[in-house]
Specification:
The protein contains six helices and nine strands. With about 180 residues, the chain is α/β, with parallel strands linked by helices.
């Protein structure tokens, strides 16, 4: 079983991201589980979610305390994420970072500029870029979830005029996610 913990801000699609990954995993014939972790936080507050991926039924029903992979939705929240236990219990975890450069952290890192990809595909509202679908593309690449399964999940969640730009953003992020630190 692979465990992913997502660190993000309220209102940026963290919960939707975990749900999308679960739908994609199920479409790929895997077992999946998405668990949001938040209270009465408001938009912009630090929140977490976890996602589990397995070939066998998942019996665990708790937040991920020792994830194999950690996704950081916004590099500007790194100080907050560290205060919230960003890498706690995750020695050796792979990091997936939305940003333009690697962050100051040990271990393997994958990088994607999900914000720019969202902007390129018109996934914005005012100044806000909706990065959850590009991050789904990036995470699926790292976790080995086939892109066609992600596309299936995107089509199930986003209907009408929002389908095409979200599909394009997921594909773009999948293609542009690169390993910037760590092993081969």
């Amino acid at each position: 079983m692979l465990e992913l913990r997502i660190h993000g801000r309220g209102g940026t699609g963290v919960v939707t991201l975990a749900d999308l990954l679960s739908k994609a995993a199920l479409a790929a014939g895997k077992e999946a589980q998405a668990i949001p972790f938040f209270g009465v936080e408001r938009r912009g507050a630090v929140i977490r979610a976890c996602f589990r991926l397995s070939d066998t039924p998942i019996k665990q029903r708790a937040m991920s305390y020792q994830p194999d992979i950690i996704a950081l939705m916004n590099e500007n929240m790194l100080p907050h994420a560290r205060n919230e236990g960003f890498t706690e219990g995750s020695d050796g975890a792979v990091l997936i970072v939305n940003g333009k450069a690697p962050i100051d952290a040990e271990g393997t890192q994958w990088l994607v500029d999900a914000e720019q990809i969202a902007r390129d595909h018109g996934l914005t509202f005012g100044w806000d870029a909706y990065i959850n679908v590009p991050m789904a593309g990036a995470i699926s690449k790292v976790m080995g979830i086939p892109l066609d399964a992600v596309e299936s999940a995107v089509q199930a969640v986003f209907k009408g005029k929002s389908t095409a730009p979200n599909l394009a953003a997921a594909r773009d992020a999948f293609d542009k996610t690169v390993k910037v630190k760590g092993g081969a």
